[in-house]
Design brief:
- The chain has a seven-stranded mixed sheet, sandwiched between helices. A three-stranded antiparallel sheet has the order 8-10-9.
- The longest helix has 19 residues.
- It has eleven helices and ten strands.
- It has two domains: about 200 residues, Rossmann fold, CATH 3.40.50; about 100 residues, Aspartate Aminotransferase, domain 1, CATH 3.90.1150.
- Helix 4 packs across helix 5 and helix 6 crosses helix 8.
- The chain is globular, with a radius of gyration of 21 Å.
- The protein is about 30% helix and about 15% strand.
- The protein is an alpha/beta fold and about 375 residues long.
- One of its GO terms (molecular function) is peptidoglycan beta-N-acetylmuramidase activity.
- InterPro entries: NamZ (IPR008302), NamZ_C (IPR048503), NamZ_N (IPR048502).
Length: about 375
């Protein structure tokens, strides 16, 4: 099988578009070529890079989730870095006036609530208003694009962790996502996409032949990216999602959980692709920092069979059933992550949620088909 090349790996094919222009770039350490050279360094070497724009976690990846980022100067390249994750999430008109073309190169994880998507969405709107073209250097989806999961986001839950009616696991590359929102929501951006080479929708991360570079501090492994689809919902609860440990989103726990009982109850569901192990951990930061937590770790034994959204729903259900101390500590955030209030309110039980999610996600897959760049 031919190795996959991301958009940055074919950047020389776009010299006609890039040469002679003042370039602004949205990127971070996940933006690298096959040889692990930073995209911003490649663009600065071969073209006229005049501005950098920092998403969540910063241009060099040195900020934690949610941490505000300030404007700065990149020491290595000596160009200004403008924050897109703090008090300002949009590109100011004056900043756009100083560039001729904006380049986007970030590794997404295939989850609706990953903020890089909406940094791109805002940038497309800003570019459209000011007539600045935007080039997306497309990247593989580490979850693959063949499977979609989860309910659609409702309008009342729109936020910077979800703006459009798409499933939790939406089955598109970031370039396809940009094509979809540009057309379906009338953004009107002059959009260019540098597609991946040799990529197919059903390819897993391991099949791509590419190195894993953590797209953000708490997605350290391909397993954490896949399980994130189902366990990110715990951000809205008093249960630790594993932040502050070496296995964020892979292990879930709290001081009040009976780990062995939870493991036994989950095993009864016989969910495909995952084995649950009772575990105990002490986070170094985040929820319960310095406290002993009890829970489970999800061990993926078949990534193609695993449906992480389904697994996450049953995990949440069993913790709620078992633990009287369980609480929704950030209910609005939980609703935004899930897409509506049906899970938190109990308005739908888990089988009903999963049945609706299957209908809605499959419908989305078909509706997004006109914007695909890659075949099955």
């Amino acid at each position: 099988m031919n190795a996959v090349y991301n958009g940055i790996d074919t950047i020389r094919d776009y010299r006609a578009l890039l040469s002679g222009w003042r370039l602004g770039v949205i990127s971070n350490p996940s933006g690298v070529d096959r040889g692990l050279t930073a995209s911003i360094d490649i663009l600065a070497r071969d073209f006229r890079l005049t501005a950098l724009f920092a998403p969540e976690h910063g241009i060099r990846g040195d900020r934690q989730a949610g941490q505000a980022i300030a404007d700065d100067i990149d020491e290595a390249l000596q160009v200004p870095v403008y924050s897109l994750h703090g008090q300002r999430k949009r590109i100011a008109s004056a900043q756009l006036s100083a560039i001729d073309l904006l380049v986007y190169d970030l590794q997404d994880v295939g989850a609706r609530f990953y903020t890089y998507l909406y940094t791109l969405s805002y940038a497309m709107e800003d570019c459209a208003r000011q007539g600045v073209p935007l080039l997306v250097l497309d990247r593989f989806n580490p979850l693959g694009c063949a499977v979609v999961e989860g309910p659609l986001l409702r309008d009342q839950c729109r936020s910077f962790v979800g703006m459009y009616p798409m499933p939790v696991r939406y089955g598109l590359t970031v370039g396809e996502y940009a094509r979809w929102i540009n057309a379906e929501f009338g953004i009107g951006c002059e959009l260019h996409v540098a597609p991946c080479r040799n990529y197919r929708r059903g390819m897993s991360f391991s099949a791509c032949g590419l190195p894993w570079v953590s797209p953000s501090p708490n997605i350290p492994t391909p397993d954490s990216a896949l399980l994130y689809i189902g366990t990110c919902i715990f951000e809205g609860t008093n249960v630790s999602e594993g932040r502050g440990t070496t296995r964020p989103f892979e292990q879930i726990g709290a001081p009040f959980i009976d780990a062995r009982r939870l493991q036994e109850r989950l095993a009864r569901h016989e969910l495909p692709g995952v084995i649950w192990r009772a575990t105990h951990f002490i986070p170094t930061s985040g929820k319960y920092a310095g406290e002993l937590c009890h829970g489970v770790q999800a061990h993926i034994c078949d990534s193609e069979a695993l449906r992480p959204f389904c697994a996450g729903m049953w995990l949440l259900h069993e913790i709620r059933e078992q633990c009287r101390d369980f609480a929704w500590t950030a209910p609005e955030h939980a609703d935004r992550l899930f897409g509506d209030d049906a899970l938190r309110s109990g308005r739908e039980d888990i089988p009903a949620i999963l049945a609706r999610a299957e209908r809605e996600s499959e419908d989305f897959r078909e509706r997004s088909r006109p914007y695909w760049l890659y075949g099955d």
